[in-house]
Design goal:
This protein is of the alpha+beta class and about 260 residues long. The protein folds into two domains: about 200 residues, Bira Bifunctional Protein, Domain 2 (BirA Bifunctional Protein, domain 2, 2-Layer Sandwich), CATH 3.30.930.10; about 45 residues, SH3 type barrels. Helices cover about 20% and strands about 30% of the residues. Strand 8 and strand 9 form a beta hairpin. Helix 1 runs parallel beside helix 4, helix 3 packs across helix 4 and helix 3 packs across helix 5. The radius of gyration is 18 Å and the shape is globular. The relative contact order is 0.15.
Length: about 260
């Protein structure tokens, strides 16, 4: 499967966007990492906002340094840059919610089995469909962000996790249409309050609240528990058993289906 973009349709869709109208859009057949491509500009005096789309990444990665393995054409891979965005709710979770909104609106199937897994993965039933990697740095008092997204278009082989794909929901789903819907949703979510984002994210994570997970918080702490709620700063509250609850800022979660 070959995924190519002229970028014309996406450019037209973003022309009037209050967030992305000034972004330079580019597509490449292959790169090491779309996130790394955009991070190269962090040291420049002026940063041109960009959206970078790739057909294949030779060294794609996800959260906690984990690799994202996919053959050419199997995934929709893209990154975009942002500067000085004011949001107390994590950008990575906003991106996850925007992904969920985009996929759900295009499939037009409320019973498709889509759900959000904290902090920023989109799952389809018991398989991971999409993920987000958000990286940031502060240079000369300027906060820069690069948000990377990977979406499985077709079933992946030999993955470290159970993977789902868009092909399970719709055979005719256009990847460029997914991009247009994603950026439209993301721009709209940036205008919402943290409380509103918490509510929207929580509703989209319906299966998440009903699933027990194995939580790994570094080498020294592992436990099983049931997620309870998220807070306005994106933290996760977990029932860790024995009537005890804890607040997590970062952790690796494995569902216990």
């Amino acid at each position: 499967m070959t995924v190519e973009f002229s970028c014309k349709r996406l450019s037209r869709a973003l022309a009037l966007s209050p967030v992305f109208s000034g972004h330079r859009i580019s597509w490449v057949q292959e790169t090491v990492s779309t996130n790394d491509d955009l991070k190269q500009s962090w040291s420049l005096p002026e940063i041109t906002p960009q959206i970078r789309i790739a057909g294949y990444q030779t060294a794609g990665r996800g959260q906690s340094g984990r690799s994202w393995h996919a053959a050419p054409g199997q995934s929709l891979l893209f990154s975009f840059s942002l500067t000085e965005i004011q949001s107390s709710f994590p950008l990575s979770m906003i991106a996850g919610l925007a992904l969920y909104n985009a996929i759900r609106s295009l499939t037009k199937n409320e019973k498709a089995g889509l759900w959000l897994k904290w902090p920023n993965d989109v799952w389809l039933n018991r398989g991971k469909l999409a993920g987000v990697l958000c990286e940031g740095c502060s240079i000369s008092s300027r906060q820069n962000w690069v948000v990377g997204v990977g979406i499985n278009l077709v079933p992946l082989q030999n993955t470290e996790f159970t993977a789902a794909s868009l092909s399970e929901i719709s055979e005719g789903l256009d990847p460029e249409e997914v991009l247009c819907e994603f950026f439209s949703s993301f721009a709209g979510l940036l205008l919402e309050s943290a409380d509103s984002l918490v509510e929207s994210w929580s509703k989209a994570a319906s299966v998440f609240w009903q699933t027990r997970f194995s939580f790994s918080c570094g080498a020294s702490r592992e436990f099983c528990g049931l997620p309870l709620a998220i807070t306005a700063d994106g933290s996760l509250l977990v029932d860790s058993g024995d009537k005890k609850s804890c607040r997590l800022v970062s952790a690796t979660l494995k569902p216990l289906f």
